[in-house]
Amino acid sequence: MGLRGRRTQRAPREAPVDRAVEELADALVAAYAPGTLLDIGCAAGELVCALERREVGGAAGLDVSGRSNERRLSPAVKDGSALDLPYRDRNFDVVLGRDVLVHLDPADVPRALAEQARVTRIGGRVLHRVPVEDAWLHHLDAVEGLELTGMGAGPLALYVELTRR
């Protein structure tokens, strides 16, 4: 309650400024100039908010936690699964996963990547921060419609880049 017994309205939650997230957002905008980007495993959506501040109007986030609606920082953040993405085919310029694949059963990784290929526009990019080990690379190069095209640099140095064909 505010002064004189009036209810005060709570200010909307603001995304905390995290230097690493801000650098990642800058690097994504500089490297890919995405009009649309999906952050899979986004938690509360800190990166989505950072991209919105950079006027990436089509930034969206998805998290499997089941709690993103309680703590989300943007209305563009949804609950969902990497195995069944709730988006239209060829909807995003860039699909990004930060340490997402390592939390999946290895048998589900090809299915998750196929879903990401489905929602990525032709010529778009799928980026994943993954342990660079032979065991992971064979998954990344084995999905129809995705071609392993490189490794990132700078803030994207730990990311593997796949291009939607």
Summarize the structure in words:
- The protein is α/β, with parallel strands linked by helices.
- It has a single domain, classed as 3-Layer(aba) Sandwich (Rossmann fold), CATH 3.40.50.150.
- The chain has helices spanning 19-32, 46-53, 68-71, 109-119, 134-140; strands spanning 36-40, 58-63, 77-79, 92-98, 120-129, 146-151, 159-164.
- The chain has a seven-stranded mixed sheet with strand order 3-2-1-4-5-7-6, with helices on both faces.
- Helix 1 crosses helix 2 (46-53).
Q: What's the mean pLDDT score?
A: 84
Largest sheet: 7 strands, mixed
CATH topology group: Rossmann fold
Indicate the structural class.
Answer: alpha/beta
CATH homologous superfamily? Answer: Vaccinia Virus protein VP39
Question: Structurally, how many domains make up the residues?
Answer: 1
Strand order of the largest sheet: 3-2-1-4-5-7-6
CATH classification, class level:
Alpha Beta
Order of SSEs = HEHEHEEHEHEE
Distance between the termini: 57 Å
- Strand proportion, as a percent range, falls in 25-35%
State the helix count.
5
Radius of gyration: 17 Å
Shape: globular
What's the CATH architecture? Answer: 3-Layer(aba) Sandwich
